[in-house]
Amino acid sequence: MAKVRIEAYGCSANIADSEMIAGSLKNSGHELVTNTNNADVNVIVTCSVKDATANRMIYRIKHLTNIGKPLVVAGCLAKAEPHTVQKYNPKAGMIGPDAIDRAVEVVNSALNENRLIALQRSTNPKVNLPRLRLNPTISMVEIASGCLSDCSFCQTKLAKGKVQSYRIGDIARQVRNDVRDGCREVWLTSTDNSTYGRDLKCNLADLVKRLYEIEGDFMIRVGMMNPMYVPFMLEDLIETYRNEKVFKFLHIPVQSGSDRVLKLMKRGHSASVFADIAKRFRREFKHFTIATDIIVGFPEENKDDFQQTIDLMKEIEPDIINISKFSARPGTEASTMERVNVNNVKERTTTLHKLANAIGYKRNLPWIGWNGEVLIDEIKKDGVLGRNFTYKPVFLHTSLALGSKINVKINSVFSHSLVGKLENNLLNQNC
Question: Does 407 have pLDDT greater than 80?
């Protein structure tokens, strides 16, 4: 038995991977610790989607290397840039995003001072593996690995390859077990949820329908979907969203409002496809949260291209606009394109942030006075955070247990959250 410390960065799929690594190691007899100094071996689950993130990963690898203890590097950086890992720690073991089932083997080899590299895709699906949840309320379920897109800026495709969907029955088995264990939220995550099932002759709507039929008190959060494949299942998807167990929340990254830039990005969709999807969901549901992503300063983006992005955001008014400056990731086509002037990128980013905050505040204002059910899923330093049926974050200055369901009245809002007050009738507080 050895003491292992795990740290994870990036998307919910990475966090889910860290939970599976932790569960596998614990089941094999290892002890999980939270302090690097107490560990016999360190494991880091990396993200490499942006330059800033990749640089942080390198900093952490160098830091953990200098500690002088065995190191295992997992996640996207290990798969997409193994040479980078090797440069800073030639002895580090590596685990690819689709080789999580080999975590124990790689860690044991590191403890024995043998370097084991496990980067190839395993034949075993990443469902129903042992896991140690970071948040006992949330079940993070990876439904597929890889995607079908060929975005010119994305390194994730290099790390995860083409889509490999996991079977509905296997996913349902994991969700059923997680709900029995007390999970109240089920997050469906993958590189691109919209491509789920296209290799199995089914789709995301089929999966969600099967999952909400599972008995238990839980909510389903459907993760990120690229607009390209949503129209092929739009009608069925809308029907699944009508179920009360599905959060009225849609994350569809448009990345740019300019069709010219979208073609350079090789996104496979137009700005109008994104707009049509968003408008349709808003028509079908009185209350609905839409999140999107924007890359500012993509190579060759000009002033007119950026203005089209601004115009699209003003037209659709997404509740959440995640903004990233373009990052030229090694191995991607976009890394060889001509960059936009740094000052222009900075100015455009500031402009879009101001707009995003204004839209977020405007979209949240109508919630003042709303009274309804909130599920507590996060403990904060000065209170708790919960989610209502549209996955709106609701902050309360009070102390409650994770998984509590309470009645809340919204009395104020910010750009990114609602602020509520606990009503007298506590619906269901877990102990």
Answer: yes
